[in-house]
């Protein structure tokens, strides 16, 4: 039901504000509420129609705290905390109730995934109980328990009224001084010469020092007027409301049948049946009704037939229920099914909060708090790198790309969240110059930031289709062979997707010295593994710097964080620096030749002296291979002797052919990104976004050796890092783990227990084909310090889907802990 907003008569804001928020849905209201709660006074919020119009008003209002990752759970759990207290604070009823969520599993695979998520809940003190089909039926009498394997019940979850909840946030914001103005449409926006933002409305121009766009579906088009690329796309989203049903009591839990693509919640004595069908219906913005505040789209029973059929299977009483309402409304989706918040790259003080993938009510509170803290402090106060608006590549705003990807993304809400899942849509966007070579060798391709990358190689004539599993996916047998070749002979990997930025100019060295914790003022040809930190010493980038000349540096980073790395570097290029940053990613293909026989192979195709004395580890030289001139970096991410060859793109095929032919006599084998992940984990090499994030420090990550404490001028984050160094034993450290039982498989997010107590979780894990059991990295937290004594004299266990497995712990890698193999 739509309530009448209490903000009448319309109040026109003053001409200038410190902060201006555009959008009066759950996202905008939450940001306004949290900014005001944290002391900001000069805030205005403009809504083009009435508060909650757009998409908030038709949300289902589900509150689910437990997510598939610790980072998302950290944000989601705050919603229940805030929504439960809003009425007391604002006087506005929200309809929030903790009637719990009952998540049922129709298959053993889904039950296992559900149990993994239930383990995550324990880290946050959330109650999540795995129960039998009969126990589930006691909680939900209308349930057809005969078709499920089991369930999870989370009593602290529930539901809320979206309109009333949004109104409570708006009232709370208004009580703390926020000016809220309805029926004021922003028709244009621009940036002034002094760095402020101005928006045009029918009542004139409003100026602000900080502009926040929280306009839901309309954010992309409004942001584009400023040159900002916001990759969101609309899709139709469906639910039906039944006539009154006897079992639909106020205490009935929300039922989530993800195998059936449906959720069911009590709605004033009726049942609301909503869907995240396997394939959605993308909706171009041009097809939205014009001048309609509360948009409703035509019914589509044909599209809704599958989820409704599944709903009847799980709750048979629905077969005889009358339908009081079929609702179809638009929602916005992102390419990776994660919302986006943060400061837009290249546009200081322009922030967005959008793309909630039909989960605005579920994430709105936590996201609003996180963005408000970011705006006030000038940088994030928690790890939100995974939802940072800077994570996207410019091509991802392409409407055709978004249209096709959105159809798949909507369904991913309720599909199995398999480890290493590869999207099926919007593929073939970015291809290495070697793509056809890999395809002929039997590559199974995956996607990373639009790049088609070999993930594994099938045997001759064998299928390359992924068969996913939490136990043993079909690629394991092939990846094990690739890993064996890396350890015994040699492998060739395509790492052309590396992000490559050329930083050059008179101040390039001094600029990078200030940004990087390591010393990059090194001789030409020296490679430096280093990091850029925030003011709290958190890790913002994980990069390799190659000094090409006195004024030129080539920065190499992972493909998946390449846009975010570029944004971090570019935001620091102020007028005081004589520095330019150029994206060179497409200019070089990269072949990585790795393994104990790599020197023998490379020696067959170049006349360069490759001996240790002539070509030491962590150095770079220009060398000839075949007819080509390439940059050869003696580096490894697999823990072996090897070189990363940066080849002018137009010469990549020639170099590949020459190296591949020469390598056949030495056991050279093609390898993919799965092998790379297994091999780097054996050597305990860190990976950004998994083992390194903006809330981890280099000392905690075991990377203190990369820091130059004495270089002239210091570096960003040095004071905070030095303070941690001088504070005594670290209370948090990244630790290596090895399971004693060879059967279980580690992937990500499994709980770490020390003497029975939860102390952390696995940040990245693999089945090690070299060691013969699963290994992983994970941060351990201990108030007295994570010391060598604690590591060696404690009982360690890893919890996987509720079961405990004994593990060995170490501060060093279990494979080649001294790193001798890479330097041989």
TrEMBL record:
The keyword Aminoacyl-tRNA synthetase does not apply. Its EC number is 1.5.3.19. SUPFAM superfamilies: Aminomethyltransferase beta-barrel domain, FAD-linked reductases, C-terminal domain, FAD/NAD(P)-binding domain, Folate-binding domain. Keywords: Oxidoreductase. Pfam families: DAO, FAO_M, GCV_T, GCV_T_C. Transmembrane segments: none annotated. Residues 732-816 form the Aminomethyltransferase C-terminal domain. One of its GO terms (molecular function) is 4-methylaminobutyrate oxidase (demethylating) activity. Belongs to the GcvT family. This is 4-methylaminobutanoate oxidase (Formaldehyde-forming). The gene is mlr.
